Amino acid sequence: MIPSIQTFRFMHLDHDGIIRMDCSSESAMAGLLALRDKFDLAFANDPDYDRHGIVTPAGLMNPNHYLAVAINYLFQHRPQWGANVAVGKTLVSSAMIDRVVADLGRKLVEVPVGFKWFVDGLFDGSFGLRRRRERRCFVPALRRHALVYR
């Protein structure tokens, strides 16, 4: 007898009928979207935690809108990060982030797609935030008091 195999029955199919862990897809997030009136906020992420989805009573939030607002807020409310701390992002990230960073007077560092391009800036604390993967999440590189996460 073949043992039971784990399934992904909890996942909704994406718009093309394929199971995809895409937290920015309304089709893939249909299960959580169906519950949006039961919570003020609900969060989801993909299996390796590099993309996020945020559901509000109004629906699925655009990840790039969230990122731009988060960058704007954090850099205005973390004076201890210092004026030399930059935002890192990949070349394929939203231009909205570019405009927010410019408005803040911060340095924007664009790198090719891939985590390895962020390592030096994360390790030495020169990035306050970095945009991870192609489009959907940011990770704070610094703690509130400008200490590097290790």
From TrEMBL:
Gene name, Swiss-Prot/TrEMBL: pgm_2
InterPro entries linked: A-D-PHexomutase_a/b/a-I/II/III, A-D-PHexomutase_a/b/a-III, PGM
One Gene Ontology term of the molecular function aspect: phosphoglucomutase activity
The EC number(s) this enzyme carries: 5.4.2.2
Record-linked Pfam families: PGM_PMM_III
Ranges of residues in domain Alpha-D-phosphohexomutase alpha/beta/alpha: 62-126
GO cellular component: cytosol
Keywords: Isomerase
Keyword Isomerase: yes
The keyword Oxidoreductase belongs to this UniProt entry's keyword annotation: no
Organism: Serratia fonticola
Name recorded for this polypeptide: Phosphoglucomutase
GO biological process, one term: carbohydrate metabolic process
SUPFAM superfamilies: Phosphoglucomutase, first 3 domains
EC class (word): isomerase
Domain of life: Bacteria
